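Bench notes, bay 3.
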Amino acid sequence: MADAEYLNNHFLIAMPGLADPNFFHTVTYICEHDADGAMGIVINRPLDLHLADILTHMDIQATPATAGLPIFQGGPVQPERGFVLHTPQGSWEATLQVSTDIGLTASQDVLAAIAAGQGPQRFLIALGYAGWGAGQLERELSDNAWLSGPATAEVLFDMPVEKRWAAAAALLGVDLNLMSGDAGHA
């Protein structure tokens, strides 16, 4: 694939027929995609955890305003590892700049700042990530398991979680409710 064909800063939208329980009806924000594979964070699977739950293990105190912030299941790979998708305010220890508007940080300093109410303005905190080996995502796309399209910060950060799957597809002009779960090949 040419660099322009890689899906960095795109949504990967599970097709209705994708039955894998890890990805059924998910939207994954692709943070890194190149010849070696792809990595992304699922943005519409909240866990039954809140920021205060994970901060207690790190000896970080959350404020009352931040303690109840939701934690998402970012994917099935390394579910014990935390990631924060965020707008670019601040300078954090381990940040991958995905686009001019979005960064992915995997260091505790951003969590401490969020807990204190001093973090980025917009963010999503996840445990785990979704990963694909070289050529795997391309095969899944050709098998019609996914739709892909440019990501927006509005769907990523502002949209109610239960509406993100349909909203991400709507950015492409697709109504997932009208799609069959069966793949067709000519």
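Next record in the batch:
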Amino acid sequence: MNLYSKLAAQAEQGRPVHVALIGAGKFGSMFLAQVPHIAGLQVVVIADLDPDRARNACRTVGWDDTRIKATRFVDSGTEATQADVDVVIEATGVPEAGIRHALAAFDAGRHVVMVNVEADVLAGPILAARAAQASVVYSMAYGDQPALVSEMVDWARAAGFQVAAAGKGTKYLPTYHSVTPDDVWSHYGLSPEEAAKAGMNPQMFNSFLDGTKSAIEMSAIANACGLDVPEGGLAFPPCGVDDLARTLRPQSIGGQLDHDGMAEVVSSLERDGRPVFRDLRWGVYVILKAQNDYAAACFKQYGLPTDSTGRYAAMYKPFHLIGMELSISVLSVALRQEATGQTRAWRGDAVAVTKRALKAGEMLDGEGGYTVWGRAMPADTSRRLQALPIGLAHRVPVLRDIPSGTVLTMADVALDDAALGVQLRRQMLVG
């Protein structure tokens, strides 16, 4: 509650927080839009494969020429990690790049805010351990759902409540798992021309639709909060905010969860496509479980929406502003040396499942593409199966014919053993 006053004090002393941003896409641009309005926060260097595109992004979000000229633009994320900064923000969305940049930042003694959830789910336990060894902070990105949910879970436990469930809302139907970039825009109510004019990437947006992003984010939440993901994958039950406590409780008492302590996503669509009443499409939630009758009575007295037993109650945040909230992580890390969420154990994984039958030699194209989608899976199951993480299912050929709907294993594809992501995942499998 005192980040702003801490930052103001540093600004008055002429000691601004210096930041390096790697990746000037949508998330990064939303952060950059806020920077001119936060005294004491300075972006020193911006790395992007196309520095001119990054400069244009700064202009688009309202930076003046003076600020742009005072900022260094480079095309190497590794170079940005070596700059004289307090915090490195990794926002490329590419798992291999994210891992490489994080390790370079740790070696340089820099804190890291990992927007790149794909990298975190692929190798988060090892990255967190490496950060601790380097005496720096490795943090989730506030504004994105995993960090927001981690905050709610931490609040709930610190207040003495059991966390029965936590997660987010999204737009979901079972048929979405097979959607490809060719037909994604019809599900968003856009024409391909409208999407192209807005600069929207069909594969990226498809990863939100086909369930992959949800699997990645719920795995990240499970790993940060000590929760479980469902053995059979996320169920995406249709549910509005008024029914969260009733739906997100164990099946043994009429809910839809395997047990207490689960990460799950609720759908904003009924299975027949009708909109859910008072949906949580853009928000996050936590389900509290009262430890005794007195606490349950207080839930009712203070107006919390509960289930029929009164023991389960829901709290939720209806929106998230992704990059526009990212400074909360940056300042927490720089001024408090405290992460806004961090992987603490390997409990959930996002693994690759075939969207269609594949022939030997076909190349996988990663999240949101034509060949695979990401399904949440308990880490113990993933380890036992040697399942292929969705973060490694990009630009690798399959070695045999594989039916549609198959969970791929690492033995099903020709992995590059020189890749950092492959090396760290293999360490996790034997760790």
